[in-house]
Design a protein that fits this description.
about 180 residues, Sf6_terminase, 2 domains, mainly alpha
Length: about 180
């Protein structure tokens, strides 16, 4: 039995790994994905691409691949973290639209691609016109949320009026 286990272990060690040899086409796909902003964990987990260990080995064996991947990752990090740092008219309109529908400033900041909450607060402190418009949008949002609540209560009351009592009879005073 021990000899059989040793033979199986030896065969497993001698079996070539799927990504043992460097493949230029696969390396190009890895570099493109890193440049588009994907993390190395996401790339290594992707189907049809080598895992972390194999990519690490490729980087060690091919310095040109390691350099290209490092540059691509830098560009990808810039894309991943690229959020607006200036208050443009389009961004201003989007923030106001979100807030007038009932979203808070924190909820607006949590939308992908929107500035961080701290940035929005800094803009509010620096720009009195922006602060005034946010206050107006916040008030409109509260009003919109209040209408939603009134509509929900009205719908529940209407359903209750139409529903029969526990004996199957219509509720008194209701058609």
């Amino acid at each position: 039995m021990a000899a059989l286990a040793e033979a199986v272990a030896l065969a497993a060690r001698m079996r070539p790994r799927k990504w043992e040899f460097y493949a230029e086409a696969i390396a190009d796909r890895i570099i493109q994905r890193a440049a588009s902003g994907e993390t190395m964990a996401e790339i290594a987990a992707a189907k049809g691409l080598p895992g972390k260990v194999d990519i690490r080995r490729w980087k060690r064996l091919r310095p040109d691949f390691a350099k290209a991947l490092r540059l691509a990752k830098l560009g990808g990090q810039m894309r991943r973290s690229a959020k607006p740092s200036r208050l443009t008219p389009a961004l201003f309109d989007h923030i106001l639209t979100q807030m007038t529908t009932g979203a808070s400033l924190r909820q607006v900041a949590q939308v992908p691609g929107m500035p961080h909450y701290v940035t929005l607060m800094a803009w509010q402190r620096r720009d009195p016109a922006f602060a005034k418009m946010l206050a107006w949008a916040r008030e409109e949002g509260h009003w919109a949320r209040g209408l939603d609540e009134v509509a929900r209560v009205d719908a529940l009351a209407a359903r209750h009026r139409r529903s029969p009592d526990r004996h199957g009879r219509a509720c008194p005073g209701h058609p």
